[in-house]
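Entry 14. Structure prediction run on the chain below.
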Amino acid sequence: MDSRVGGTQTSLSYEEFDPLCTWQREDGQDILVIHLPDFKKEQLRIQISSSGVMKITGEKTLEGKKRSRFVKEVNVIKDYDSSNIHAKFSQGRLRITLPKKPSKPSLPDPVVETPSPQEDQNDKANTNAKMSSPQEDHYDKANTTDIPGSKSRVGQVLRSKMFTQVMVNVGFVAFVAFSAYTAYKYWTSYVQVDED
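Output returned:
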C-alpha cells in the first residue's frame, strides 16, 4: 500500500502471518480459539457473510512502516446458529463461540397394523354393502349444490397452460424479490468482540 505525504512517496510493508488456531468441541457449541499475542481488541474484526463464511482479520503496527496482519476464513456450516455467534478477547486469545442449532428430535416410526385375512374380508363386505345402498346415493346427491358448468369451467382454467405459466412466473418473481431483499438486508453481519 503506497501513500503520499507532502509530495514524497512512503511505502508500508506488511508481514503476513497465520495465527495458531485450535477448536474446542462441546455438545451445544464449538469454540474457535485464535492465539494473538500482542494484539488489542480494536485491531480485530470478525465478519460473517450471507454465504456462511466467517472472516477474521487483524492488523497491528510493528515498527515504523512495518505492519503485521492476518486473515482467517472459516465456513460456518448450517448446523450453527449464526445469529448467536459471539467472540471474546482476553489474554491474547480470541475465543469465538459458535452455538449449534438445537437438533430436532427424531419421530418414532409409525406403527402400521396389518389386518388379518378374516378382518380384510369383513371390510370388503361392508364396503360392498355401502356401495349398493340406493338411499345413501340419493342422500349424497340431494346435499350437493351444482352450478351449471362451474366444474368444467374451473377445471379448464386450472388445466390451461396459460394459467400454469402465470402461476410459475408469479412464484418465480416472488422468489427473486425475496432473495434480493434478503441479500440486501443480511449481506454481511459483524460479530462484536467483548473484552475481559
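Residues 49 and 188 are 4 Å apart (CA to CA).
Filed with the rest of this week's runs.
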